[in-house]
């Protein structure tokens, strides 16, 4: 695919199939995705994006009664208080099971809005309209919804698949560069766990890859979404993959440390930045445990670094990060579990690395020790 001059639809199979429609200026597609049984729509949007959201709201108002709820931006929306306020608003408006939620914003908005849809009346229809690269390639697809608690990221949530996802690449034109680059944390992750062509495209010309007006980014978006789809259709609820494949946990590559860092930073660090650092950490852990060679470990810092993502972190102690990693959802009792690579495209689970190995990988992540 080059330039995505026309629309592309990727199908997500499984028990509740849906489509991910990718294109430019495609807000008019929303009613077709929502379906004709919906009467009212709760439009849950990042309030700071009111101007960008207006055309979408206008399309919805032509066909539905719209309850527009502007939410706080970023991680501030992934709180129990915000979810509670949404429930109260839906209750006051008398929302029923024939009504639907549309989310509009980055991954924080699709996570929180998705959780409102998952929990209201035990689940109503939701369509996501992601407006960040990260939400397009990851958060809006696959049905994970949730909020944070003081103990960590995404500790409360539900699996609730959308009825559709509308990816309008034009929304990336207003996205601040640092947010676009953050999205590359998940795009590069997809390259390492499943699609080497993603790595090749980025490494060949990082500036072209990160140009929101260019021809490479649409291809990267489509490829990363396809990686996510291929994983979630086989293991929607993260119960495990076939053979040695970790199933959906593969998408959690780099996230054990990433979520610990995000917690240490009071949820102020961009998710994709934390993922880049977390992948560098876990690549070193894989090297130390004999899973990958020096070159593949080094390729992590090189490729994440090439698009401008951070590849080291030294603002929290090993002990604090280890404690935070223990509440990771992949942990089983006291045993920490990590997704590591055997090679590009071959993720496996590493169970219970020693504290010595974890500390050695941490030392490399801080930049204080050479790999
Ligand atoms: N559910 C999943 O599978 C999944 C996957 C990956 C990440 N996530 C979650 O996604 C969240 C991160 O999402 P994110 O990186 O999109 O950040 P975000 O939602 O916090 O958005 C970042 C900022 O960009 C602004 N913004 C969004 N779109 C814009 C646009 N088009 N123009 C200008 N500004 C815009 C937002 O208002 C916000 O201030 C994290 O909470 C992470 O845990 C979830
Ligand atoms: O969809 C998944 O599964 C993922 O793990 C994708 C991740 O990029 C995403 O950040 C997800 O929200 C992390 O899930 P969690 O279960 O570790 O909270
Ligand atoms: Zn992530």
From TrEMBL:
<feature type="binding site">
    <location>
        <begin position="171"/>
        <end position="174"/>
    </location>
    <ligand>
        <name>NAD(+)</name>
    </ligand>
</feature>
<feature type="binding site">
    <location>
        <position position="271"/>
    </location>
    <ligand>
        <name>Zn(2+)</name>
    </ligand>
</feature>
<feature type="binding site">
    <location>
        <begin position="73"/>
        <end position="78"/>
    </location>
    <ligand>
        <name>NAD(+)</name>
    </ligand>
</feature>
<keyword id="KW-0963">Cytoplasm</keyword>
<keyword id="KW-0479">Metal-binding</keyword>
<keyword id="KW-0862">Zinc</keyword>
<feature type="binding site">
    <location>
        <position position="144"/>
    </location>
    <ligand>
        <name>NAD(+)</name>
    </ligand>
</feature>
<feature type="binding site">
    <location>
        <begin position="131"/>
        <end position="132"/>
    </location>
    <ligand>
        <name>NAD(+)</name>
    </ligand>
</feature>
<comment type="pathway">
    <text>Metabolic intermediate biosynthesis; chorismate biosynthesis; chorismate from D-erythrose 4-phosphate and phosphoenolpyruvate: step 2/7.</text>
</comment>
<keyword id="KW-0170">Cobalt</keyword>
<dbReference type="InterPro" id="IPR050071">
    <property type="entry name" value="Dehydroquinate_synthase"/>
</dbReference>
<comment type="similarity">
    <text>Belongs to the sugar phosphate cyclases superfamily. Dehydroquinate synthase family.</text>
</comment>
<feature type="domain" description="3-dehydroquinate synthase C-terminal">
    <location>
        <begin position="183"/>
        <end position="331"/>
    </location>
</feature>
<dbReference type="GO" id="GO:0009423">
    <property type="term" value="P:chorismate biosynthetic process"/>
</dbReference>
<dbReference type="Pfam" id="PF01761">
    <property type="entry name" value="DHQ_synthase"/>
</dbReference>
<dbReference type="InterPro" id="IPR030960">
    <property type="entry name" value="DHQS/DOIS_N"/>
</dbReference>
<dbReference type="GO" id="GO:0009073">
    <property type="term" value="P:aromatic amino acid family biosynthetic process"/>
</dbReference>
<protein>
    <recommendedName>
        <fullName>3-dehydroquinate synthase</fullName>
        <ecNumber>4.2.3.4</ecNumber>
    </recommendedName>
</protein>
<keyword id="KW-0456">Lyase</keyword>
<dbReference type="GO" id="GO:0046872">
    <property type="term" value="F:metal ion binding"/>
</dbReference>
<feature type="binding site">
    <location>
        <position position="153"/>
    </location>
    <ligand>
        <name>NAD(+)</name>
    </ligand>
</feature>
<keyword id="KW-0028">Amino-acid biosynthesis</keyword>
<dbReference type="InterPro" id="IPR030963">
    <property type="entry name" value="DHQ_synth_fam"/>
</dbReference>
<dbReference type="GO" id="GO:0008652">
    <property type="term" value="P:amino acid biosynthetic process"/>
</dbReference>
<comment type="function">
    <text>Catalyzes the conversion of 3-deoxy-D-arabino-heptulosonate 7-phosphate (DAHP) to dehydroquinate (DHQ).</text>
</comment>
<feature type="binding site">
    <location>
        <position position="186"/>
    </location>
    <ligand>
        <name>Zn(2+)</name>
    </ligand>
</feature>
<feature type="binding site">
    <location>
        <position position="255"/>
    </location>
    <ligand>
        <name>Zn(2+)</name>
    </ligand>
</feature>
<feature type="domain" description="3-dehydroquinate synthase N-terminal">
    <location>
        <begin position="71"/>
        <end position="181"/>
    </location>
</feature>
<dbReference type="GO" id="GO:0005737">
    <property type="term" value="C:cytoplasm"/>
</dbReference>
<dbReference type="GO" id="GO:0000166">
    <property type="term" value="F:nucleotide binding"/>
</dbReference>
<dbReference type="InterPro" id="IPR056179">
    <property type="entry name" value="DHQS_C"/>
</dbReference>
<feature type="binding site">
    <location>
        <begin position="107"/>
        <end position="111"/>
    </location>
    <ligand>
        <name>NAD(+)</name>
    </ligand>
</feature>
<dbReference type="GO" id="GO:0003856">
    <property type="term" value="F:3-dehydroquinate synthase activity"/>
</dbReference>
<dbReference type="Pfam" id="PF24621">
    <property type="entry name" value="DHQS_C"/>
</dbReference>
<keyword id="KW-0547">Nucleotide-binding</keyword>
<dbReference type="InterPro" id="IPR016037">
    <property type="entry name" value="DHQ_synth_AroB"/>
</dbReference>
<keyword id="KW-0520">NAD</keyword>
<keyword id="KW-0057">Aromatic amino acid biosynthesis</keyword>
